[in-house]
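Format notes (please read before filing issues)

Several people have asked whether sequences and structure tokens are stored in separate files. They are not. Every record keeps both together, in the order shown below: the sequence lines, then the token lines. Line labels are part of the format and must not be stripped during preprocessing.
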Amino acid sequence: MASSPAKRHYQRTLAAQDAAGKAPGQLMTGATAYEQHMAMLQHDRLRLRQVQSDQGKAELKRQMLPAYASYIEGVLERGNGAADDVVSTIMVWCFDVGAFREGLQIAEYVLAHSMAMPDRFARTTGCLVAEEIAEAALKALKLGDTFDPLILDRAAELTAKQDMPDEVRAKLHLATGRAVLIAYADDALPPAAELQAAIEHLKQAIHLHSACGAKKDLERAERLLKKHAAAPPANAGDGASS
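Then the structure lines:
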């Protein structure tokens, strides 16, 4: 059952007060709202362990996420970057269920305060954010679906100064370049400016990781760009009659 607006407001206010009272890097342990949501998170993790299917886990997370929304809003509103297992976990869950905008909103807070991921996560925060978005995009594009380029751009912007393996950053460049090619039907010619940007991303992907799989995409993008150069001007042949 969904909580009432009054309860959500209370949870958000309490979370904001708790987060505002903790210094950067300090643990949120002991804060009332945090302890309440950690207890809920531990219970939810036990439920997830009982599900073997990745798709089933994602669907269960999708059902669980609204219960954490007020807490997350409060922390993001007034938090100072205290270590927070709830915030980090919910960020990852958002990526897992395809709520990329919400996940990146949390990521902005986490990265701005240089918050480390809990020990159970093997990757650094910046690496995790970049790779989760890149892999989700590449999976969608492989199936012939589109992927919002603004999501890719935002992920790249947030992680631009983060340390990560070159292979991971190459995935993000590859996904960004490939997304342009997939966004248009086979018989449609993408705008020249978008193609040029895609080419730069694909070249950077190859530079960072030569075996990333971008070479055929690059060849196609360059062929399409040449079509622009060969195409007559839009007004060619128009008379000046009046």
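For reference, the curators noted about this record: Residues 1-121 form one domain. The mean pLDDT is 92.
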